[in-house]
Structures are given as structure tokens and as C-alpha cells.
Design brief:
Blueprint lengths: L3 H6 L5 H9 L6 H13 L4 H18 L4 H16 L18 E6 L6 H14 L4 E6 L4 H14 L3 E2 L8 H14 L4 E6 L6 H15 L7 E7 L3 H14 L4 E5 L9 H9 L3 E5 L7 E3 L2 H9 L3
Parallel strand pairs: 1-4, 1-5, 2-3, 2-4, 5-6, 6-7
Antiparallel strand pairs: 7-8
The structure holds guanosine-5'-diphosphate and magnesium ion (MG).
């Protein structure tokens, strides 16, 4: 696994760095404060949180003056950490010891956000932790989706339950995967799903069915919503639909390596009330990091 801070610090123009550059100017004019707010909005922090942060930073500036860059950095860092909310519980349920049964994780999200890739990376993470994993390819829309998951399974040494038929019932694959995980006494079951769904009713129907059939064998511990960090507000609207369709317990923010818009961490948590638990920082098997507010903020502030 990779380190969140080091990788983020290397990303182009992390917004924390841009904020710091403005805040350490000799005199902060009204237009500088507008730049601060614009920087936050451009980074997808969201209107409400941006306004709140600007207000706090202005208060901080009034109290401390803007003379000492180290003091500015300290206050900015703390304000950002508070905004990301260090009090949310971000532990993956599957990382906790279970009472003699596999933990179950369902991956949901729009097509192309990184569900299958994240399922593979997660499996690798658990395997590295000494856990046995089973994956279920409940994206049955096309065989290529199951092939992709199977490739990941091969790479990380994890069996994949799949159907060979295009358009097979995703719920029946999910059912078989749960049965397999239970019979094998696996530690973790990861179920991949499709994102191609016409409307909310259809989505609720299909995800609800997948959940119900798994629950015939095992309780579902975690539903991870996978969100592409580069899609901004659009991704947020989709996220809400998924959150309404199936109870989401955590968010995986992918493609943060290709985005300076890390502020979506803040807005998505506020909108959904669910913590970001994992971050995708590339396409490789190790490019997944456990989310941690301090490392995240240090990453977007860049090096001192
Ligand atoms: N740069 C980058 N690419 C990613 C990341 N996660 C997934 N991808 C790529 O995004 C594309 C779609 O991923 P996939 O897992 O197939 O998405 P799915 O349709 O939700 O299952 C693939 O080309 C992945 O390699 C990430 O964190 N960073
Ligand atoms: Mg997929």
C-alpha cells in the first residue's frame, strides 16, 4: 500500500498549497480573500464549507496577523483537518475480526468510477493482511467485466465467482459468491456490481435484490460507494442516487492522482454524512491508500 501524504504532495497544484501561497502575502486585500474562496470552490470543497472556511481563516488572520508563515500554515492545516472531520469512524468493517463468518463488502457506483479496480486492490490489501478473500462478479452486463475481475483475482491470488453468460442475473452470482465464501470459511467477500442502470427505481431494485440474496447466507457489513474524484459536482449527484438506493457505509474516492480537486473529500462527506475510507491514487495493485485526515491535509499542503 502507498502513503497518502507523499503521493498527494506530488499531484499537480494541490489546493492547500495554493491557499497557503495566498494567505502568506504581506497584505490580504478583499480580492485575495475572493481568491481564497475561488480556490476552494475550484477544488470542489463545496459552497457552504468554502464560505465557512474563509470566515474562519479571516478570524485567524485577524488574531495572529499574517506575519509568520509557520503560524499561517498551522492555522490553515488545523482548519482543513477540522473540515475533513477526524472524528468519523473510517475503519473498514472487514478489517475488524468477525465472529466466525466472512465479512461482506459490496462495491457500488457509476460505470467507470473504478469499482472493479478497487475490488482488486482491496482484495490484495486483505491478502497482504493474511486474510482469505472471495470475490463475486455481479457485474454481469458483459463478460468482459467478469474477465476484468478474474484478472485481478489471478493477480492477487483470490478466487472469483462468476457467470459465463452475458446478462446473467447479477443476484444469482452474488448468491453463489456468498455461499462460496461461507462454505470456504473465507474472511472477506467482495462483491463487484454494475453501474449501468437506467433509473433510480431500477437501481434500487437491482442493488436491493443483490443485498437480499447475499443476506440469505451472510450479513452485509459494508457498502462502498466508489466515486471518481475528477467528476466534481456531477459525481456528487450520482453519489446521492446510490446512497438513496442502498445504504452506503463508506466512500472510496478514486483517481485522486489525476485531480487537483481533492476538496470533494469534504463536500461528499458533508452531503452524504458518510466517511471517505479509501483513496485510489493510480491504476496499479498498490495504488490504494487508507484515508486519514491528517495525511490528506499534509498532502494537499505540500512540503514546507
Ligand atoms: N488514475 C487512476 N485510474 C484509476 C483509478 N481507479 C481506477 N482507475 C481506472 O479507471 C478505469 C475504470 O475502472 P474500473 O475499475 O473498470 O471501473 P468500474 O466500471 O467502476 O468497475 C480503469 O481504466 C482503471 O484502471 C485510480 O485511482 N487512479
Ligand atoms: Mg467494473
Amino acid at each position: 500500500m502507498i502513503r497518502l501524504k507523499a503521493r498527494l504532495a506530488k499531484s499537480p497544484n494541490p489546493f492547500g498549497k495554493a491557499l497557503f501561497a495566498i494567505l502568506t502575502k504581506d497584505h490580504l486585500s478583499e480580492s485575495d480573500w475572493e481568491d481564497v474562496e475561488d480556490t476552494l470552490l475550484m477544488a470542489d470543497v463545496g459552497a457552504e464549507a468554502s464560505e465557512q472556511l474563509v470566515k474562519q481563516l479571516r478570524d485567524d488572520a485577524r488574531i495572529t496577523g499574517q506575519k509568520d508563515p509557520a503560524a499561517v500554515r498551522r492555522s490553515l492545516r488545523q482548519r482543513l483537518i477540522d473540515l475533513v472531520d477526524p472524528n468519523m469512524d473510517r475503519t473498514l468493517v472487514a478489517a475488524r475480526p468477525q465472529a466466525n463468518r466472512p465479512s461482506v463488502i459490496i462495491m457500488v457506483g457509476v460505470n467507470g468510477t473504478g469499482k472493479t479496480t478497487t475490488a482488486g486492490k482491496l482484495a490484495r490489501l486483505f491478502v497482504a493482511d493474511g486474510k482469505s478473500v472471495v470475490m463475486g462478479a455481479a457485474d454481469t452486463f458483459r463478460a468482459a467485466a467478469a474477465d476484468q475481475l478474474e484478472t485481478w483475482g489471478g493477480k492477487v491470488g483470490v478466487p472469483v465467482v462468476r457467470s459465463d453468460r452475458d446478462g446473467a442475473d447479477p443476484a444469482s452470482v452474488a448468491f453463489e459468491a456468498a455461499e462460496r465464501a461461507k462454505n470456504d470459511h473465507a474472511d472477506v467477500l467482495i462483491v463487484d456490481t454494475a453501474g449501468r442502470l437506467q433509473n433510480k427505481a431500477n437501481l434500487m431494485d437491482q442493488l436491493g435484490k443483490i443485498r437480499r440474496v447475499i443476506e440469505k447466507n451472510l450479513p452485509v457489513d459494508e457498502v462502498l460507494l466508489v466515486l471518481d474524484a475528477t467528476t466534481g459536482q456531477n459525481g456528487m449527484i450520482q453519489a446521492k442516487v446510490f446512497a438513496q438506493a442502498i445504504g452506503v457505509t463508506g466512500i472510496v474516492l478514486t483517481k485522486l492522482d489525476g485531480s487537483a480537486k481533492g476538496g470533494i473529500v469534504i463536500s461528499v462527506q458533508r452531503e452524504l454524512g458518510v466517511p471517505v475510507k479509501l483513496v485510489g491514487l493510480g491504476e496499479g495493485p498498490d495504488d490504494l491508500a487508507v484515508f486519514d485526515p491528517e495525511s490528506f491535509v499534509d498532502g494537499i499542503l505540500g512540503d514546507e
